[in-house]
Specification:
This protein is 36% helix and 17% strand. It is built from 10 helices and 8 strands. Strands 1, 2, 3, 4, 5, 6, 7 and 8 form an 8-stranded mixed beta sheet that branches. It starts with 20 loop residues before the first strand and ends with a helix. The chain has 2 domains: 186 residues, Rossmann fold; 71 residues, no CATH class. By secondary structure, it is of the alpha/beta class.
């Protein structure tokens, strides 16, 4: 398989194909973690239920009253844990649901993030998808509700969209199972590293922004060694994002980095005093 060719683009790639084995609650030790993201009312929960067999573990996110749903499936000889993130329209708002979603994508280190969009409202849904592509290379776009789109006369060039976005794009109708074998193949390819997306990213062409961003990034990396997505976090700080600013002040930035090892978030142990120095 070519590194520039997602497995759904042809029928000759040597990638696993066929149905997944639904594990429901019996995930055990997962080989890969999948984040399931999307706007509300895109059929994201239907995708989750189709993959996990309608069985899920529900609880709350650590320190939150927001429900956390997890399930699992096996595919291609690997076990996947899938985390259904709260439905959100943006990663830039400070609502509790949106904060949970972006913190998991930023610091939970999912092996692949599946962004579920409504094919009938693609332009609106791509706002979230483009924001997610700013912070992760490992993403797959699930064009859900394709049956409704066809009924409404909507036509989408999935391959052309994949080329423009630089990630796999899979047309699906989750409630009937249409497209799910292709979605599973793409998830496996991205999670395993067999396919490496090159996502489109918005250019930061504001005069003077690059210099200010560089200074904030340097301070963040000095105080939070190994911090992922430092540039995105720095941009949020420059925009005055209060939720990100609070994480910096309290030293909890990056506190979901141990999600692979535990279902509960683990603190990094970074001191609040050091993080306050970044904001000075």
């Amino acid at each position: 398989m070519s590194s520039a060719c997602p497995p759904s683009a042809c029928d000759t790639c040597a990638v696993p194909r066929g149905p997944a084995q639904r594990l429901g609650l019996d995930v055990g030790k997962a080989d890969y973690v999948v984040a399931l993201a999307g706007n509300p009312n895109t059929g994201k929960s239907t995708v989750f239920n189709r993959l996990t067999g309608l069985r899920q573990h529900t609880g709350n996110w650590p320190g939150k009253t927001i429900a956390r749903a997890e399930g699992g499936f096996a595919y291609g000889g690997k076990r996947f844990k899938i985390v259904d993130l709260p439905g959100t329209y943006s990663l830039r708002s400070a609502s509790p649901d949106e904060t949970v979603a972006r913190e998991f994508i930023l610091f939970g280190k999912p092996d692949v993030t599946v962004v579920v969009v409504d094919a009938n409202c693609l332009e609106r849904n791509l706002n979230l998808a483009l924001q997610i592509l700013q912070i992760t290379d490992r993403a797959v776009l699930c064009l859900n509700l394709m049956d409704e789109a066809r009924a409404n006369g909507v036509e989408i060039d999935a391959r052309g969209l994949s080329r423009e976005l630089g990630i796999p794009v899979v047309p699906c109708t989750a409630r009937s199972g249409e497209g799910l074998p292709q979605l599973l193949a793409e998830m496996h390819a991205v999670a395993s590293g067999a396919f490496k997306p090159s996502p489109y990213r918005l250019k930061l062409a504001v005069p003077g922004l690059r210099e200010a961003l560089g200074r904030v990034v340097a301070r963040l990396r000095a105080r939070f060694p190994g911090l992922a997505n430092a540039e995105w976090i720095a941009l949020r700080l420059l925009e005055g994002d209060s939720a990100v600013g609070e994480m910096v002040s309290t030293g909890t930035l990056g506190s979901l980095s141990a999600d692979h090892a535990s279902q509960e978030a683990a603190a990094t142990g970074t001191t609040g005093a050091a993080s306050k120095e970044i904001r000075a």
